[in-house]
Specification:
Length: about 260
């Protein structure tokens, strides 16, 4: 499946258990040359607290807390409104005009909630890497830093992204966003995703970047965020919850021998 080109291998273990999905196996499945190939491997399991549990493994095999595009994909697979348990908290998804709407919860801004290695103002962090300076940090189930730039395409994100992702300031690593405000209702965005690299779309990145722009007074509380793979609608409601709306697509179904990846 994919959301705006951010693609996933979805393993559905809600009814039939599968062997343990280790870091090594997840990375082997995600490998585009020798595996199935994807940005993230998504594992669906039974949940005692929700309709199902979603676990997310990046292309390097690391398990992460949240993935907005995958949330829309698995909601499409489920076929009806769903409450989804993730490591980043409970989320709700439902069919909507424009695809699937996902309630991503309430964003967190405290330095220890991102988390950062030490205390600082997360609304305009006094740090810089090359041309990228004074980002905002937001946790929307996973950690993001957002830099506002004149032209997202002019930033060497393939070089600066891994430097920032792995900086000691971010003990759990971080997703790196470069955003350009086009108007009060529109933004452009590129994302370096921790554990996955440059991606065509990042749902949590779109949420985090929209929230950052709203907090700085650059856009309204409903904004279209355009990534290389397409556009998402991000709304920040008066009760503080972030709603992401966009498409999801099933590409194909298939099977493989588990032993080929162990």
């Amino acid at each position: 499946m994919h959301g705006l080109g951010n693609d996933f291998v979805v393993l559905d273990a809600r009814q039939t258990a599968i062997p343990e999905l280790t870091v090594r196996v997840a990375a082997a499945i995600a490998d585009r040359r020798t595996g199935v190939g994807c940005d993230q491997v998504i594992l669906l399991e039974q949940s005692q607290a929700a309709d199902f549990r979603m676990r997310i493994f990046n292309a390097d095999g690391s398990e992460v807390e949240a993935c907005g595009n995958a949330s829309r994909a698995v909601a499409l697979l489920h076929g009806k409104p769903a409450r989804i348990e993730t490591a980043g908290g409970m989320i709700d998804a439902r069919p909507a005009d424009g695809g699937i709407a996902v309630d991503m919860g309430i964003p967190r801004f405290g330095w220890e909630e991102i988390p950062l290695a030490y205390a600082m103002d997360t609304s305009r962090m006094p740090v810089a890497w090359g041309e990228l300076a004074e980002p905002m940090a937001v946790n929307v189930g996973n950690p993001h830093v957002i830099f506002f730039v004149a032209d997202t395409d002019a930033v060497a994100l393939d070089q600066l992204g891994p430097q920032i992702e792995n900086d000691p300031l971010f003990p759990e690593r971080v997703n790196v966003n470069v955003a350009t405000v086009v108007s009060r209702a529109a933004m452009r965005l590129r994302v370096w995703e921790r554990g996955a690299g440059l991606t065509r779309a990042c749902g949590t990145g779109a949420c985090a970047s929209a929230i950052a722009a709203m907090r700085r007074g650059l856009v309204e509380r409903s904004v279209a965020v355009t990534l290389p793979g397409g556009t998402l609608r991000i709304d920040w409601s008066e009760d503080g919850r972030v709603i992401m709306t966009g498409p999801a697509t099933e590409s194909y179904r298939g099977s493989f021998e588990w032993g080929d990846y162990t």
